[in-house]
């Protein structure tokens, strides 16, 4: 295993450029991160009934996620244990069994090998069927409707893995009726390293007024004055890095700000806020009205407010597939949900105005490292490091204002921890406290 101890320096603020380019580092990510960490698989509402399934990926492994007759959810690798063929070619559907197109082995909803053509005549009944079940995802758990899986049986529980991020995400997950992810997901390809969009979503309030200046003007929403950083109050909001590499930034009172026709959403927020305050307290009622840019380690991101939900699926060190759903509250009226979908498509869909701004930058940020000399350099995300600290009431490390890189550093600290190959127990024994400085 490659020694990665020098790749992330200065408490997460300095990254070696090779982590965005080198094949051997990428292979180590597949082994140490994607084969160990919990990854987003689905929202329970996408597969509500027995036999409902969808196909997705964990790292570069294709998986089937299926609702079982007893209501639980199982996942297994979508590759036939006979000769390796892809067993299920559909994105989603309802099935009683999965049958391989090559020689006809059939598997139950739980991945067990159920029938084998010519079992008696050709195998002489000597095949040990339990040995040839589809390879299971070791653990599948859900948190308030969000389903995650890990290949590592020794991984902590999903709740422990999410840590303080779960407390923050309850803001929109723990609403009456819960949430929905509206799809099918838009899918596109970007020629960038998977970490580049994750860091963009987890921490990059800095680029918004600059990279999106033209789009912000064109959209003609309450966010338009940010264009060109003309009227960007960088102190409105804060950034949070939670232990475990998850984090987000929030702009206060801006949940509906990107929507040109945001009136119905603002009315919805006003109506629901007293309920959220009652249920979750003052702070989270405030977060409920904020606009968030967020990532869940390793490769799931979302913007609460806009309301886009993303998976950045790695396809090698320089390429990803982007999957985009629309996040809505289940109890929202149908017209409001439709408005959410429309704004998400206009902003962060495949051809969305902000998506294309970001995509171009993300591809160039990756591609420049093709240069042998270039990639011996370092990158810097130290913004706000001298001002971050603890908050009297909020968990995690708090960065001051929306324009800082506190949660970016948290992400890279976690990346370095897992890439070192240390066990979950070893990593957990090193609790990280915020710098001893109060950030209000
Ligand atoms: S490869 Fe699937 S049955 Fe042979
Ligand atoms: Fe952006």
TrEMBL record:
Keywords: 2Fe-2S, Aromatic hydrocarbons catabolism, Dioxygenase, Iron, Iron-sulfur, Metal-binding, NAD, Oxidoreductase. Residues 38-149 form the Rieske domain. SUPFAM superfamilies: Bet v1-like, ISP domain. The keyword Nucleotidyltransferase does not apply. Pfam families: Rieske, Ring_hydroxyl_A. GO terms for molecular function: 2 iron, 2 sulfur cluster binding; dioxygenase activity; iron ion binding. InterPro entries: ARHD_Rieske_2Fe_2S, RHO_NdoB-like_C, Rieske_2Fe-2S, Rieske_2Fe-2S_sf, Ring_hydroxy_dOase_asu_C_dom, Rng_hydr_dOase-A. Coiled coil: none annotated. Belongs to the bacterial ring-hydroxylating dioxygenase alpha subunit family. This is Naphthalene 1,2-dioxygenase. It comes from Immundisolibacter cernigliae.
């Amino acid at each position: 295993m490659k020694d990665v101890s020098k790749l992330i320096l200065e408490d997460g603020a300095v990254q070696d450029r090779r982590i965005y380019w080198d094949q051997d580092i990428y292979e180590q990510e597949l082994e140490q991160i994607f084969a160990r960490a919990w990854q987003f698989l689905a929202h329970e509402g996408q597969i509500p009934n027995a036999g409902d399934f969808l196909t997705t990926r964990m790292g570069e492994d294709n998986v089937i996620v299926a609702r079982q007759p007893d209501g639980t959810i199982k996942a297994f690798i979508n590759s036939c244990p006979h000769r390796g063929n892809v067993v299920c070619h559909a994105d989603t559907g309802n099935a009683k069994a999965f049958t391989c197109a090559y020689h006809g082995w059939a598997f139950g909803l739980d991945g067990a090998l159920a029938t084998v053509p010519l079992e008696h005549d050709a195998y002489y009944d000597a095949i040990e069927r339990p040995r040839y079940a589809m390879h299971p995802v070791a653990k599948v758990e859900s948190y308030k409707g969000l389903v995650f899986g890990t290949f590592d049986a020794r991984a902590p529980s999903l709740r422990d893995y999410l840590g303080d991020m779960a407390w923050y995400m309850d803001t929109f997950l723990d609403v009456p009726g819960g949430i929905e992810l509206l799809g099918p997901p838009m899918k596109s390809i970007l020629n960038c390293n998977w970490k580049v969009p994750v860091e963009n979503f987890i921490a990059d309030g800095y680029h918004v007024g600059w990279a999106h200046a033209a789009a912000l003007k064109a959209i003609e929403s309450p966010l338009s004055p940010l264009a060109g950083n003309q009227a960007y109050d960088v102190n409105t909001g804060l950034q949070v890095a939670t232990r475990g590499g998850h984090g987000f930034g929030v702009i206060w009172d801006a949940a509906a700000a990107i929507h040109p026709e945001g009136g119905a959403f603002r009315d919805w927020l006003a109506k629901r806020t007293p309920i959220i305050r009652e249920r979750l307290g003052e702070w989270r009622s405030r977060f409920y009205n904020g606009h968030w840019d967020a990532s869940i380690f390793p490769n799931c991101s979302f913007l609460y407010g806009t309301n886009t939900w993303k998976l950045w699926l790695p396809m090698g060190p320089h390429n990803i597939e982007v999957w985009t759903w629309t996040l809505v509250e289940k109890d929202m009226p149908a017209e409001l949900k439709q408005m959410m979908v429309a704004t998400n498509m206009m902003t962060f869909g495949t051809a969305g105005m902000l998506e294309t701004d970001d995509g171009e930058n993300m591809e160039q940020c990756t591609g420049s490292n093709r240069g042998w000399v270039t990639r011996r350099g370092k990158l810097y995300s130290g913004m706000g490091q001298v001002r971050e600290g603890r908050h009297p009431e909020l968990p995690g490390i708090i960065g001051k204002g929306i324009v800082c890189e506190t949660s970016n550093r948290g992400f890279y600290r976690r990346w370095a921890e897992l890439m070192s190959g240390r066990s979950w127990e070893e990593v957990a024994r090193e609790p990280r406290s915020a710098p001893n400085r109060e950030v209000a």
